[in-house]
Specification:
This protein is α+β, with helices and mostly antiparallel strands and about 160 residues long. The protein has four helices and nine strands; from the N terminus they run E-H-E-E-E-E-E-E-H-E-E-H-H. The protein has one domain: Nucleic acid-binding proteins (OB fold (Dihydrolipoamide Acetyltransferase, E2P)), CATH 2.40.50.140.
């Protein structure tokens, strides 16, 4: 099982890519290969080979892609049947307006960061997004080294208080 970094959209979209190693890192220098986000599905486009959708968590919109045609990745027909059934379940969960938790591998497509989906779960708890925000802030402070969201809020407060002087 792979670990997934809990990130806000602003952090995920701000990851930098090393073109030589194709790895991603946060502004604090931590490497990220898999991520988890929670937000609302605001766009959805289905094609023959993939489902592309955007998840908005209030800090930004993360492009996500769920590959539907994964025959080239699986060599056993029993695994292919299992994967096809699982993929169809994920497709059904990705409805416009749904609050979802998405896990996947961080990738770049046409110069933009995206999430290649491995799991989609509909959130039933209306507080899930707020809890995710709090967990992301806590992890950013304790584990990731810094919290870009809090730094942005501090800069805005300083700007406002500086204008009042």
């Amino acid at each position: 099982m792979e670990a997934h970094a809990k990130l806000l959209a602003t952090e995920l979209l701000g990851l930098t890519v090393d073109p030589f190693s194709a790895s991603f890192s946060t502004s604090a220098g931590h490497h990220v290969s898999n991520a988890e986000i929670i937000g609302m599905i605001v766009t959805r486009e289905r094609r023959n080979d993939y489902l592309r959708f955007h998840v908005d968590d209030g800090t930004g919109c993360v492009p996500c892609v769920l590959w539907l045609n994964q025959r080239h990745l699986i060599h056993s027909s029993s695994h292919l049947d299992l994967l096809a059934g699982s993929t169809q379940v994920h497709v059904e969960k990705t409805q416009l307006g749904s609050l979802v938790c998405v896990r996947g591998r961080v990738s770049v497509f046409r110069g933009a960061v995206e999430l290649v989906v491995s799991r989609v779960a509909v959130e039933r708890d209306p507080h899930a997004e707020v809890l995710h925000w709090l967990q992301c802030i806590s992890l950013a402070r304790r584990c990731y080294g810094r919290c870009p969201l809090l730094e942005t809020v501090k800069r805005k407060k300083q700007k406002i208080s500086g204008e009042d002087d």
